[in-house]
Every structure is written in structure tokens, then in C-alpha cells.
From TrEMBL:
Domain N-acetyltransferase residues, every copy: 1-175
CDD domains associated with the record: NAT_SF
Protein name in the entry: GNAT family N-acetyltransferase
Pfam families for this protein: Acetyltransf_1
InterPro entries: Acyl_CoA_acyltransferase, GNAT_dom
Amino acid sequence: MIYRILQEPEINRHLFSGFIRRQKVDLCWRRSKDQWIIKSDPFTDDWDETDYSSLIASLKETVLLGGAVFGAFENERLTGFASVPPQRLGSCAQYLSLENLFVSEPFRGNGVGTRLFLLCADWAREHGGKRLYISAHSAVETQAFYRGLGCIEAQEYSRKHVEKEPFDCQLEYPL
């Protein structure tokens, strides 16, 4: 597996031609009366062409503004990616945000996501971040992944992230 920073010109629809976003979800973490509980809420998460267009525009913007987009490749095929925009969040500008972390379905469970996460954490630390902010999918498996890396509930919630994805769990990772 090869991990590297992506450049703006290579971020296009072709880059994602073999990428499988699909995630079948059953159990999710939900906030209920100031506590987290696990509830059954079955659905399948996937992207359509509109989602890919938005993703590509967002990743290009991240690079153009001075953030980082990392890619994982096997035989020149994208197997995972993650991004950290340069904008700071939080009352003391202590957070840099992990905006994307996705691994193609056939490659999950093989350390690709962990390696991408750690590359993003290193980049955020090198760019003055004190904590990595993660608005993470509420699926039990996704939460187990982030918690296993040492992520905890965010001390401050980003209103922008909560409004965009109200069921996400807001996490942070100390750098």
C-alpha cells in the first residue's frame, strides 16, 4: 500500500472510479437524555454522482487553501483517503478538522483507515493544531474505530458540523 498527499489536478471523478463507499449500518449510537445509547437504525450509506461532485469540489478546495488530502493506493487504485482543511475551529482555535476519512469497502479492516488517520493527525500537529476534531458517523463500527484510536467526545461541538450531520458523534483526538 502506498500513502501520499494528493495534488489538486489529480482529484477528479476518475480517481474514485473503483472506490466503493457502501456501508451497511444497523446499530448506531444516539444521544438520548444526555447519554449515549445504541439503537437499531438500519440503512445503507452510499454516494451518488451529486455526492461525488460535492466531495471532489471540497477536496480540491482543501488543497487549494493549504490543507492536506492523503490517499492510499494499491496498484495505483485509490483504496482510501482522508483530508484536513487548514481552517481552525474551537474557542481557542485548538482544533483542526478531519473532514473525510473513507476506506473502500474491500480494504476495510486492514489498517488503511488507521494509517490515514495517523497521517492526518501528524499533519495537524505539524500545522499547530492541539486537537483533531472529528464529526464521525454514528455507526457502532465507525465509533469503535475512532474510540480504538483514542478519540473521545469533543469538549466543544462545532455548530457547522452538528447542523450538517445531526446524528454524527462529535469527537476529538489530542495531538
